[in-house]
């Protein structure tokens, strides 16, 4: 199945995110070999694949931390090629990094304030804080605690809340299930599904293919720097090849 | 009474170390580098202040402000030209560059201003407060130094803990990559840190030379090393640590000079440092990182 054959279920013909045939090198290592994909408004799109397939490299290229040697990334119809990474956030692209990377010595509230660094209206920031706290009541209970004292699940919630504070038009999540107990993984995925229901557009990178595909509108399967298969979440869950390789038979 | 006199001198000297140590510790906290040229920025600040006051007859306060502006600019330029290109380089390369920058500044000063010592005019005169019927004499410079250090400490702490930019600095010091993902301009934040540290160095230079008026191109280097020691002593990266380390170092130094031996005072200072680091390797207020995974 090739991506062109996919029916695009969106009224808006311009994708929120368009990755166009990018090649990325780490020194002499060809990490990403000409991949292309799109994310449309209101979708959850997932990139799945084994460790080292190039999923995080792809995300870091989108957010401008790495630069493609050829090909390009456009966001809301505009190229991100010459945009510095910290400016990408202003345009509405937020990334929840792998391993959460909360600011351990800052309080929960300060972490969220940092998420709103690009926001200038104090009223909006207060509104957003309320929204994040109602989405993650645990964070409200711990707002004055330093983030380093939170459990792994709470840190993941904080990292997601922090990203939401920038009012993103696209939320990119890098391995949100990593290192979490199964019950917490389900909780986190429930929250992602809830965010999606409220209209958020999400690009989800996961090793946990089962969970990711179960909530995704569409998915792309990556293997050693290439996209090998694509389809709707349901199609991929049902696909024999994907089952064998990523869903444990 | 003599004891009290020494104690006050110690706190005053320590205040100068503390102001310099703040520059070391902030730059270390955010850029993760030891800026060994920091001591020489003090010297440049003192020279600018000296020329503004002595040659151009400006108001001493205005002289200090001009010196601060010059040093802030110098700090930003040094960072941009010498350290920024090495952001991804091994820390040893950065360290050696910093030492090189220190010699560069000293030798440039030697060319510009010659090796002849200048007599620095005190920015507040040579008067003193007499207390207890003249048994205790505290110079105006001493009072000004201690007061300045306290004000700087309070303002800087508020800046770091309350303002958006201050919090962004803390975010950068913890994780630059994550800070960038928040939309924080990491390079601008590092520049800001150098600017603040260098501006403070100018104040330290003016206060130092008001208390010890001999100004030479090497004037900044020993106080620079001592302040670096103070920063490590208090826990490098920690702002209250730099304050505490600076004050303690000054007091220990003056007491060692007064009661042990003026030649051995530096040896005593460093011996105390070694003992502290043996007992608490992260320094007095150093951060013990605890992170749940």
Task: Give structural notes.
The complex is a heterodimer of chains A (249) and B (293). Chain A has 249 residues and is an alpha/beta fold. Chain A has 2 domains: 3-92 and 169-246, Rossmann fold (3-Layer(aba) Sandwich); 102-167, no CATH class. Helices cover 36% and strands 24% of the residues of chain A. Chain A is built from 10 helices and 10 strands. Chain A has a 6-stranded mixed sheet with strand order 6-7-8-3-9-10, sandwiched between helices. In chain A, helix 3 runs parallel beside helix 6 (152-164). The longest helix of chain A has 16 residues, at 182-197. Residues 1-8 of chain A have low confidence and may be disordered. Chain B is mainly alpha-helical and 293 residues long. Chain B has one domain: ABC transporter involved in vitamin B12 uptake, BtuC (Orthogonal Bundle), CATH 1.10.3470. Helix content of chain B is 72%, strand content 4%. Chain B has 11 helices and 4 strands; from the N terminus they run H-H-H-H-E-E-E-H-H-H-H-E-H-H-H. Chain B has helices at residues 2-31, 38-55, 60-83, 91-113, 140-162, 164-174, 176-181, 186-211, 221-234, 239-260, 265-279; strands spanning 118-119, 128-131, 136-139, 214-215. Chain B has a two-stranded antiparallel ribbon with strand order 1-4. In chain B, strands 2-3 form a two-stranded antiparallel ribbon. In chain B, a hairpin with a 4-residue loop joins strand 2 and strand 3 (136-139). In chain B, helix 6 packs across helix 8 (186-211) and helix 10 packs across helix 11 (265-279). The longest helix of chain B is centred in the N-terminal third of the chain and has 30 residues, at 2-31. The model of chain B has no long low-confidence stretch (mean pLDDT 92). Classes of the chains: A alpha/beta (249), B mainly alpha (293). The A-B interface holds A 63, 65, 84-90, 94-95, 97, 101-106, 110, 113-115, 117-118, 148-152, 155, 162-163, 166, 179 and B 164, 167-168, 170-171, 174-175, 177-186, 287, 289-293.
């Amino acid at each position: 199945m090739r991506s062109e054959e996919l029916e695009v279920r969106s009224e808006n013909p311009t994708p929120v995110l368009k990755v166009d045939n990018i090649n990325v090198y780490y020194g002499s290592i060809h990490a990403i070999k000409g991949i292309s994909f799109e994310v449309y408004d209101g979708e959850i799109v997932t990139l799945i694949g084994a460790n080292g397939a190039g999923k995080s490299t792809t995300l870091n290229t989108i957010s401008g931390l790495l630069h493609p040697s050829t090909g390009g990334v456009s966001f809301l119809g505009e190229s991100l090629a010459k945009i510095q990474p910290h400016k990408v956030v202003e345009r509405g692209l937020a990334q929840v990094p792998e391993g959460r990377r909360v600011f351990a010595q800052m309080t929960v509230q300060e972490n969220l304030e940092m998420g709103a660094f690009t926001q200038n209206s104090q009223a909006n920031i207060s509104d957003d804080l309320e929204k994040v706290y109602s989405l993650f009541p645990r964070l409200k209970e711990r707002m004055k605690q330093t983030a380093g004292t939170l459990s792994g699940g709470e840190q993941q919630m904080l990292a997601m809340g922090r990203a939401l504070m920038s009012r993103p038009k696209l939320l990119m999540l890098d391995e949100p299930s990593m290192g979490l107990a199964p019950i917490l993984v389900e909780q986190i995925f429930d929250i992602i599904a809830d965010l999606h229901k409220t209209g958020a557009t999400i690009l989800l990178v996961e090793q946990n293919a089962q969970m990711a595909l179960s909530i995704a509108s569409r998915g792309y399967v990556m293997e050693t720097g290439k996209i090998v298969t694509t389809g709707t979440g349901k199609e991929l869950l049902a696909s024999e090849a994907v089952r064998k390789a990523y869903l444990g038979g | 009474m003599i004891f009290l006199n020494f104690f006050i001198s110690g706190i005053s000297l320590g205040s100068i170390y503390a102001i310099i140590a703040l520059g070391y510790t902030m730059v270390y906290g955010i850029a993760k580098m030891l800026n060994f040229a920091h001591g020489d920025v003090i010297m440049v600040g003192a020279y600018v202040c000296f020329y503004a006051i002595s040659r151009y007859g400006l108001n001493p306060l205005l002289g200090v402000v001009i010196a601060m502006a010059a040093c802030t600019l110098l700090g930003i330029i040094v960072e941009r030209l010498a350290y920024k290109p090495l952001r991804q380089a091994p820390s040893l390369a950065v360290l050696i560059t910093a030492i090189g920058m220190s010699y560069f500044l000293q030798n440039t000063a030697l060319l510009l201003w010659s090796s002849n010592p200048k007599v620095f005019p005190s920015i507040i005169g040579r008067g003193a407060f007499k207390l207890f019927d003249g048994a205790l004499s505290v110079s105006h410079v001493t009072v000004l130094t201690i007061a300045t250090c306290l004000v700087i400490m309070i303002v800087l702490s508020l800046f770091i803990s309350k303002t958006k930019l201050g919090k962004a600095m803390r975010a950068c010091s913890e994780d630059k990559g994550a800070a960038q993902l928040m939309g924080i301009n990491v390079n601008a934040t590092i520049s800001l840190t150098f600017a603040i540290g260098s501006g403070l160095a100018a104040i330290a230079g003016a206060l130092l030379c008001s208390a010890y008026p001999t100004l030479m191109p090497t004037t900044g280097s020993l106080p620079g090393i001592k302040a670096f020691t103070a920063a490590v002593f208090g826990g490098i990266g920690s702002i209250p640590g730099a304050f505490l380390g600076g004050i303690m170092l000054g007091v220990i130094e003056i007491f060692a000079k007064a009661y042990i031996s003026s030649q051995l005072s530096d040896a005593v200072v460093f011996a105390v440092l070694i003992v502290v680091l043996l007992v608490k390797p992260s320094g007095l207020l150093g951060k013990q990182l605890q992170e749940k995974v």
